[in-house]
Design a protein that fits this description.
single chain; 388 residues; alpha+beta; 13 helices; 34% helix
Length: 388
């Protein structure tokens, strides 16, 4: 079991208003400093609004939100405002794959083409499910322009991706797959289960977890239920504009389109820290969670241009040791036992097997790489410092 037995294995975590609690293992003064750091970031203009949940061994330490849903400051953030969490989606999509592995519908070592025959051409015949999960398939960016132009047309994207040739020999290079991770695995999930990945995610996980504000497609545009993205850096202004379009918000991109709240993502990651068990329901076998969150690769990532640790759909911690010149978004206490994911220059979810610590931070502004990682580092280090 990842961490000690806790109440969330038997009962649901109850979020009951904004709270800062005294929990065994966390310094009360340290928790206050986390809150001050969170508030200061909003007040200093790093982002219009944000949500933060900190949990230790299944108990809420901090549940906080603040600021506004948009740069014009028209609407305030509440705990049920949904943020576009971008690449945190990859972790949820990967768990759909592992659920299908448990059901013996997918083999981790099998070629993608075994489930999606049209994919098996142009050198892609031997790309395996495992290689996609580890960003080693050899086609990290193929089809990107087509995906942007036709984001709402799943069939067209899949057909285009199937026709793409290799960029690298499968398994020879690790290169972060920003979107292809989700489109490849999403099509495999659809072929095997008969459902799109969003539907499968709801059926196998979200429904019984009680997560009503989480989806890989944002279909509710009737009221101000979601946060708008903005950018504090010139190179991401177009991306912020693009991702704010209703066509992008409604589209299914299993590597980047996840809408959720800090509370609901905390529940999902707590289930993983519990080795697949939550509120008396077994969502995954312990061995599935342990493999998915274990070290699959450590080394240079050609896309990210730095040393990384990859699990199977998860980013693993310890960047402060791998890349000491760069700020570590998961903080100074993170290690290869820390798993989670970043959301492109904005958000983060992390869970630590050794301590039972869980942190979800969501915000709505892109920053430059260093500023974004420092923003996350400030939050994460404050949490690690609060541990007793």
């Amino acid at each position: 079991m990842n961490g000690p037995v806790n109440d969330s294995m038997k009962t649901r975590i109850i979020f009951d208003g904004e709270m800062t609690r005294s929990v065994k293992g966390m310094s009360p003064n340290g928790v206050k400093r986390i809150s001050k750091t969170f508030d200061h970031q909003i007040q200093s203009g790093l982002h219009p609004g944000a949500q933060l949940v900190v949990i230790l061994n299944g108990q809420i330490v901090l549940d906080r939100w603040g600021g506004f849903t948009d740069a014009s400051k028209k609407h305030r953030v509440s705990p049920r405002i949904r943020f576009l969490t971008l690449s945190i989606a990859k972790s949820l999509t990967s768990m759909c794959v592992f659920k299908l592995i448990e059901q013996k519908n997918i083999n981790l070592q099998a070629p993608v083409a075994e489930y999606w025959p049209e994919f098996g051409n142009q050198g892609k015949e031997e790309i395996t499910i495992k290689q996609v999960l580890l960003h080693q398939s050899g086609i990290p960016r193929r089809g990107l322009v087509n995906q942007i132009l036709h984001i709402s047309d799943w069939d067209r994207i899949s057909e285009n991706l199937a026709s793409q040739r290799l960029q690298y020999q499968p398994g020879s290079i690790t290169a972060y797959h920003a979107l292809n991770f989700g489109f490849i695995l999403g099509e495999v999930i659809r072929r095997v289960s008969g459902m799109d990945v969003d539907e499968y995610l709801h059926k196998e996980f979200l429904g019984d977890l009680g997560l009503v504000d989480t989806s890989l497609k944002n279909v509710d545009f009737g009221h101000n239920s979601y946060a708008q993205l903005s950018s504090g850096t010139l190179d991401h202004r177009f991306i912020a504009w693009l991702f704010n379009l209703s066509s992008f918000r409604k589209a299914l991109s299993p590597a980047s389109s996840l809408h959720s709240t800090a509370r609901e993502l905390a529940v999902f990651f707590q289930m993983l820290l519990n080795d697949g068990l939550y509120a008396g329901i077994k969502f995954l076998q312990p061995e599935s969670v342990r493999l998915a969150t274990s070290l699959g690769f450590e080394g240079f990532d050609q896309s990210l241009r730095r040393t990384t640790r990859w699990g199977y759909g998860f980013y693993l911690g310890g960047d402060h040791k791998l890349n000491p010149a760069l700020p570590d978004g998961m903080g100074k206490g993170s290690s290869s036992d820390t798993f989670g994911h970043y959301g492109q220059r904005s958000s983060m979810a992390l869970a630590d097997k050794k301590t039972g610590l869980l942190v979800v931070f969501l915000c709505n502004r892109f920053l430059s790489f260093y500023a974004y990682k420092n923003r996350l580092r400030e939050i994460s280090d404050a949490v690690w410092d609060a541990l007793e």
